Amino acid sequence: MASNITVSKEVFNFLSDLEKNNNKEWFEEHKPEFKRHQSEVKTFLEAAKDNLNHHDEIEKTKMFRIYRDVRFSKDKTPYKSHFAGFFSRLGAHLRGGYYIHIKPGESFLGVGFFAPNKEDLFRIRKELEMDAGEFREVINQEELKSIWGELRGDELKTAPKGFDKEHPDIDLIRKKQFMFVRNFSDKEVLSPSFLDEVDMSYKAIRPYFDLMSDILTTNLNGESILK
Q1: Are 62 and 86 a contacting pair, CB within 8 Å?
Q2: Fold type of domain 9-216
Q3: In what order do the strands lie in the sheet with 97-102?
Q4: Is the pLDDT of residue 46 over 70?
Q5: The whole model's pTM is what?
Q6: What is the dihedral sign for C-alpha 199, 204, 209, 214?
Q7: 164-178, pLDDT tens digit by residue?
Q8: Using a CB cutoff of 8 Å and minimum separation of 24, what contacts does 9-18 make?
Q9: For every residue of the chain, which 3-state class applies, written as one string?
Q10: pLDDT tens-digit readout, 123-144
Q11: pLDDT digits (tens, 9 = 90+) for 83-97
């Protein structure tokens, strides 16, 4: 597995400068520098994908654009002051995704289900309504919890329509997102071991992805819904 590929301090320096000079004139003047750092981070993402493919199946890697969509935002600054990438798992039978966010003081990994569609969300809630025991067992596994901490995500203030607000697992049923986040210090990101740490973190979430993939590819009787 590739482990000698790093994120350089120069990447952080550029992102810090961009945050202070978030305008078209400055960016155009420093575009060659941006391209160089973008290429460096892209190499890191490719290495992370190669590592992932040793224990998972990745369909595609996406590096997000630096340009912000400001059409519906009060913040009109034109550029993001971070680099980010996303790894999509292969096919309809492998659900979930891996996100990485690189920014001075705000670097993190994110995994799970950030914006489940209406059908998936309903299916997850029905599973939890029927029996949340296995779900709780998985998210409380010692290794997973020591690395990723608690399950996160936005949630409703009350029970979703059609669900009992007194249900013993309503704390899970109310959720609209089912994800985990691991934060990293700048020192950790710039460390030679960061790539290995990313892969170890992604590997640790696999029991959760396996369970959620099983839920989202079957009906409540456990029968496959894949064609």
Answers
A1: yes
A2: BirA Bifunctional Protein; domain 2 (3.30.930)
A3: 58-63, 83-89, 97-102, 107-113, 178-184
A4: yes
A5: 0.94
A6: positive
A7: 999 999 999 999 999
A8: 9/190, 10/37, 11/37, 11/40, 11/41, 11/83, 11/102, 12/104, 12/186, 12/189, 12/190, 15/81, 15/82, 15/83, 15/102, 15/103, 15/104, 16/81, 16/104, 18/79, 18/81
A9: CCCCCCCCHHHHHHHHHHHHCCCHHHHHHCHHHHHHHHHHHHHHHHHHHHHHCCCCCEEEEEECCCECCCCCCCCCCCECCCEEEEEEECCCCCCCEEEEEECCCCEEEEEEECCCCHHHHHHHHHHHHHCCHHHHHHHCCHHHHHHHCCCECCECCCCCCCCCCCCCCHHHHCECCEEEEEEECHHHHHCCCHHHHHHHHHHHCHHHHHHHHHHHCECCCCCECCC
A10: 999 999 999 999 999 999 999 9
A11: 999 999 998 899 999
pLDDT at 61: 94
Residue 1 has pLDDT above 80, yes or no: no
Instruction: Give me the pLDDT at residue 3, please.
Output: 57
What pLDDT does 4 receive?
Answer: 79
Check: CB of residue 208 under 8 Å from CB of residue 180.
yes
Q: Is the dihedral of CA 157, 158, 163, 165 positive or negative?
A: positive
- Give which of 172, 161, 170 is closest to 215, Cα–Cα: 172
Query: Which of 33, 35, 38, 43 has the alpha carbon at shortest distance from 2?
Result: 43
